[in-house]
Amino acid sequence: MTAASPYTTRLAIPSIATYQHLRVAAGLSAKTTAAAARGLPNSLFAVQVLHGDEVVGMGRIIGDGGCFFQVVDIAVLPAHQGKGLGKLIMREIRQFIDRDVPESAYVSLIADGQAQDLYAQFGFKHTAPASVGMALKR
Known about the structure:
The model has no long low-confidence stretch (mean pLDDT 95). Strand 4, helix 3 and strand 5 form a beta-alpha-beta unit. Helix content is 28%, strand content 25%. The protein is of the alpha+beta class and 138 residues long. A five-stranded mixed β-sheet has the order 1-2-3-4-5. The longest helix is centred in the last third of the chain and has 16 residues.
């Protein structure tokens, strides 16, 4: 963001409560406290966007640290959407990938709806028809 921007970034894993709030408020699925407590510490990279002291956006990378990495939890509170914060989050994530991820690693994500347009700006490409995303819903 520019010097006059009211937004700053913090390279840190969000608290459980912040994580849960951002996911639900941004329209992502809810995660239980137990699941968040177990999963968040295993993040390979995390970025938060702050407006003053309030966390209004986030993104994470998970994976095994060598061969496979997945971009997850890209979320921005609705009141702050449309202000370039998704791009800010993805810029930080892309810098981490370029700096710390081995070139032979597979970096993936699942794009919901028009989010694919954002991710394409950072070099992500459709994998279909060679491969398609699949999920197990429980």
